[in-house]
Amino acid sequence: MSKHLLQDQGLWREGALINGEWVTETAHGTYDVRNPANGELLARLPRCQKEETVRAIESADAAFRKWRHTTAKQRAEIINRWYQLMVQHKEDLAKIITLEEGKPLSEARGEMDYASSFVQWFAEEAKRVRGDVIPAPKVTQHIVALKQPVGVCAAITPWNFPAAMITRKAAPALAAGCSIVVKPASQTPMTAFALGELAIRAGIPAGVFNVLSGNDTRIIGGLLTSHQLVRKVTFTGSTEVGRVLLRQSAETIKKCSMELGGNAPCIVFDDANLDLAVEGVLAAKYRNTGQSCIAANRVLVQDNIYDALAERLAERTRAFKVGNGLEEGVQIGPMIDEAAVAKVEEHLANAIAGGAKILAGGRRHALGGAFFEPTVVAGVSRDMTIAREETFGPVMPLIRFKTDAEAIEMANDTEFGLASYLYSENASRIWRTAEALESGMVGINTGLISTEVAPFGGVKQSGLGREGSHYGIDEFLEIKYMCWDGLRPAGAL
């Protein structure tokens, strides 16, 4: 069994965490979690529905009433213990990620470094939540603005980064003094359960951190967005689902953070350092087999370097090692499921029918199952499906442009605005382009932009709010204004 691969088998939990207790059975039956690399059964988990979701919410509310009154220093110390445990068990956590999500073990280790960095960061930020004393219009008044925890939070997280997408939400929530109910993706709940086990060991009180299991996502999500006790909803996933959650949350006027779909352009200008551009484009495209919301979905290349860059990218792409993420040296793992593979095939078929040309890959991998060859496709036009929609797979479409204005116009020609990338050695061109791009984040001469110290989030239909950085904790706080009148003026003493 897969848990025997772990040094600490106590991290392999097969049930929901509600009010500090592991729920291994419900009246609704079970569902299976399988390894996308080989179809192996990893776990048979209980399906949570209305009863379990309401119990988790009510437990979180009861716990919140105590947790909010702990001091910032106390919360910081407990959250920091959670961080230390993540660091201590990094290898086991990485193996769990690879088993259920498929990414290469080296990338899973990197995800754990990234995930734990948010816990460390927000443990420190807990002690830095500050209000204001505002000059009052009357000499008998004092005006104070306080920041207080919003209340019970609900986090609905995706499968592609099963640790980081939880810690990026839970850590600031807990640091602010909130409690949280996490609904991880049904494909990748085992990482969430392991984080829950470490939360218990760290001393996070029962009910402060809850994790639901199950594939009845509509039922669970509907309750999390409609229940009166939930005051904040934070979600990472598709724009389509985000719209539904926002509509549902509107009935009870919840505070919402939405990190939604992307269609990231990567612009390579003719004055770019091509060595740097090749490395950055490959990293931005193929991380997690292209299954990342900030993956370079469209690579826009200036006309006079297009052919040279295309050949270099294709050559490097052909050299990638594809396989089970637990195998040594694997760089590209499986896609999450058959539906994801079918979407990639559909996008490629549309591009080829429109005259695009495959330079590398382009087919299901000989390994079968959910494996797909990393692919470079040239001659892509902006009206093709592969350029209009988020492919979410290991396919790199190359689009030719002539002028800077044309590149910027093409980059912005999308309803999405999460991330953008550009490569140039000209400071004026860099500043002009970066300022004009309609996205929440811009990578300049780099394909790796995610870090706990910077605000992560998008504009347009890519979402609301920011995660990470000193801005991230504000998403879990409310501002209370207090006007204190009837005071004796200082001059009247």
UniProtKB/TrEMBL annotation:
Catalytic residues in the record: 259
The keyword 4Fe-4S belongs to this UniProt entry's keyword annotation: no
Source organism superkingdom: Bacteria
Family annotation (InterPro entries): Ald_DH/histidinol_DH (IPR016161), Ald_DH_C (IPR016163), Ald_DH_CS_CYS (IPR016160), Ald_DH_CS_GLU (IPR029510), Ald_DH_N (IPR016162), Aldehyde_DH_dom (IPR015590), Aldehyde_DH_Superfamily (IPR050740), Succ_semiAld_DH (IPR010102)
Chain ranges of the Aldehyde dehydrogenase domain: 22-481
TM region positions: none
GO cellular component: cytosol
Example GO molecular function: succinate-semialdehyde dehydrogenase (NAD+) activity
Record-level GO BP terms: gamma-aminobutyric acid catabolic process
Designated name of the protein: NAD-dependent succinate-semialdehyde dehydrogenase
Keywords: Oxidoreductase
Recorded family membership: Belongs to the aldehyde dehydrogenase family.
A Pfam family hit: Aldedh
Organism: Noviherbaspirillum saxi
